[in-house]
Amino acid sequence: MTTTTTATTTGSTTTAATTKTAATTPSTATSTATAPRGLVAQLTRAQARFLTGGVLLGILGVASTLVQPQLVAHLIEAVGRKEPIALLVTLLAVLFVADAALSATQGCLIGRAGENIVRDARVLLSGRVLRADLSYLNTQRQGDVHTRLVGDTALMKIALTQSLAQILLNGLIVLGGVVMMALIDVWLLLVTVGCLGVASVASIGVARGLRRAALVNRADTGEFGADLQRVLAALPTVKAAGAEGREEDRLAARADTVRRSGNRVTVLNALFSPVLNVGLQASLAAVMGIGMARVATTSLSVAEFTAFTMYLFYLVSPLVLVFLALGTYQQGRAAVQRVDELAGIPQEDAPAPDGGSGTAPAPVPDASGRPAAASPAPDGGHPAVEFRDVGFGYGDRTVLDAVSFTVPRRGLTALVGVSGAGKTTVFQLIERFYRPGRGAVLLDGRDIAHLSTAEIRDGVGYVQQDSAAMRGTLRENIVYAAPDATEADIEEAVELAGLTHVVAALPDGLDTPLGDHGIGLSGGQRQRLCVARALLQKPAVILLDEATAHLDSEAEAALRDSLRRIARRCAVVAIAHRISTVVEADRIVVLDEGRVRAVGTHAQLVRDDALYGRLAAAQFADGARAGAAAEAAAGTPSGQPAVGVAG
Ligand SMILES: Nc1ncnc2c1ncn2[C@@H]1O[C@H](COP(=O)(O)OP(=O)(O)OP(=O)(O)O)[C@@H](O)[C@H]1O
């Protein structure tokens, strides 16, 4: 039996890449790796049943292979002695068939174990990536993560099952063959081992080089994948910038790098067989020469010489396969390492490390030095959101410094400030995408450092700045955070978000399919879709990051009206560049260079805060100019309040 469950890997067909840092790691990202160490080993152990079954059948196959030359020797002797041979011939035929059947069954079992390992690894890795700590995941290249999940898992399967089985079973054939040959003639065996030993040592050297080359090749392939993904994600920008040629050249250069390292893998792969063949040919020649001489001097019988030569021939193919499998295994080990690394990705729900943000500091003293009460809400409960002396930075760069403010349980709270002041970062801390380096963020009086991600996110609806929509129908997008929502709830959310007319105008209404990133809707419609999604979740707090940025003044006024209605039920926190969106807010928090500069109503801030006053004046002046221009063009007065963009 020769186990031939070969699977060729050229190195260039599977992909991987070394991890590259694409963005700054927040200095205060606190999740730790709760990696299932040696995940791949665990998954392999889970398939012990199939693997052991396969190996046992393989060992039976090896035994039947090794008996065959001995039977042939007996057959020769029986023919020489003119004895009946029918039984021997039948036995030999049975062994041939059994050998083939065992080989096929063993291949199936090992193959099944391999598929199970890949499935388990992909399911587990997908879950870990989905629950990964964003502050860490944002530093990884998406293309590389994809490559590890798709390409490396496939390569790992080959290494763990087929290659290992080949090494083991073919290794057993070689070992058994050597033992049988030793029983026939030790001197002839020593000659054979001498020739093969030199070739084997050379082959092992090639295998080591192959592993290194495979790692480089997969890193290069991962770089290509990451670049391709970057370009595909921004294809309209590439086209608008007329950068197709430049990007094509860049991809071509990457592809060429992959080709070069792939060539090295191919060369080393190709070197295996010839290096080994030289040894085999030398040993065959020596065995023939010396063996024939021994037969001539009758110190070796013809039957023994035939059996020895048969064993040598039986050895050739398994030996080559062992070394080829060693090469594949070396490539697969790199994949195993990369899969294990991805499995170790820090998870969101990892406990806050010592010295992190686990403990909520005492309420910040007010101007009189007395500790501020936790700003009780009008209904006497805790504020919906509270920032207590929060400090946070990306890398070494401080973005928020000693930020303290509260958000009442009802009403509209606005966050304003120039671009880069840290407004979106505040939202991301509320969602616990990042953890503060100092201070605490509280939801309904509870430090979110001690809450599960589900507890945090079930209570917070987040409409992001870039209005995330996904491929799928409009309905699927809207119910994404509340899959069990009723038709009445959906209708209400659609109405509150001002989407009713949009849905009515679509050919299939809510069941109209959208493309990637919500292609099929305008920017403003996508924004309203995200508002509807957040509303349907019925959270205690809704965070709106520039939810009116893409809306015209009519749609903005409608959404403002909706927000007023929503704010009667829950806390609404809105980041707005347009002061017009927040003039009616119950409280406005002005952020400046990562610090809370002032808190108040529009009227108070216009009166008391110079920065806010400037922002408002600039925007209303812009609006007045726009209004005057519109009046001049239309010949009618414009009563519409001005809008503009700060910063
Ligand atoms: N992932 C990140 N890595 C490193 N720096 C970041 C990251 N995200 C934001 N920053 C930096 O943090 C600062 C605050 O960003 P943030 O997005 O919170 O500002 P913002 O007030 O919401 O701005 P805008 O109004 O333009 O949206 C900016 O200087 C930005 O460059």
TrEMBL record:
<keyword id="KW-1133">Transmembrane helix</keyword>
<dbReference type="InterPro" id="IPR017871">
    <property type="entry name" value="ABC_transporter-like_CS"/>
</dbReference>
<feature type="transmembrane region" description="Helical">
    <location>
        <begin position="164"/>
        <end position="184"/>
    </location>
</feature>
<feature type="region of interest" description="Disordered">
    <location>
        <begin position="346"/>
        <end position="381"/>
    </location>
</feature>
<feature type="region of interest" description="Disordered">
    <location>
        <begin position="1"/>
        <end position="31"/>
    </location>
</feature>
<dbReference type="Pfam" id="PF00005">
    <property type="entry name" value="ABC_tran"/>
</dbReference>
<feature type="domain" description="ABC transmembrane type-1">
    <location>
        <begin position="53"/>
        <end position="331"/>
    </location>
</feature>
<keyword id="KW-0472">Membrane</keyword>
<feature type="transmembrane region" description="Helical">
    <location>
        <begin position="311"/>
        <end position="329"/>
    </location>
</feature>
<dbReference type="Pfam" id="PF00664">
    <property type="entry name" value="ABC_membrane"/>
</dbReference>
<dbReference type="GO" id="GO:0005524">
    <property type="term" value="F:ATP binding"/>
</dbReference>
<keyword id="KW-0547">Nucleotide-binding</keyword>
<dbReference type="InterPro" id="IPR011527">
    <property type="entry name" value="ABC1_TM_dom"/>
</dbReference>
<protein>
    <submittedName>
        <fullName>ABC transporter ATP-binding protein</fullName>
    </submittedName>
</protein>
<keyword id="KW-0067">ATP-binding</keyword>
<feature type="transmembrane region" description="Helical">
    <location>
        <begin position="50"/>
        <end position="72"/>
    </location>
</feature>
<dbReference type="InterPro" id="IPR003439">
    <property type="entry name" value="ABC_transporter-like_ATP-bd"/>
</dbReference>
<keyword id="KW-0812">Transmembrane</keyword>
<feature type="transmembrane region" description="Helical">
    <location>
        <begin position="267"/>
        <end position="291"/>
    </location>
</feature>
<dbReference type="InterPro" id="IPR036640">
    <property type="entry name" value="ABC1_TM_sf"/>
</dbReference>
<dbReference type="InterPro" id="IPR003593">
    <property type="entry name" value="AAA+_ATPase"/>
</dbReference>
<feature type="transmembrane region" description="Helical">
    <location>
        <begin position="190"/>
        <end position="210"/>
    </location>
</feature>
<feature type="compositionally biased region" description="Low complexity">
    <location>
        <begin position="365"/>
        <end position="381"/>
    </location>
</feature>
<feature type="transmembrane region" description="Helical">
    <location>
        <begin position="84"/>
        <end position="102"/>
    </location>
</feature>
<dbReference type="InterPro" id="IPR039421">
    <property type="entry name" value="Type_1_exporter"/>
</dbReference>
<feature type="domain" description="ABC transporter">
    <location>
        <begin position="385"/>
        <end position="618"/>
    </location>
</feature>
<dbReference type="InterPro" id="IPR027417">
    <property type="entry name" value="P-loop_NTPase"/>
</dbReference>
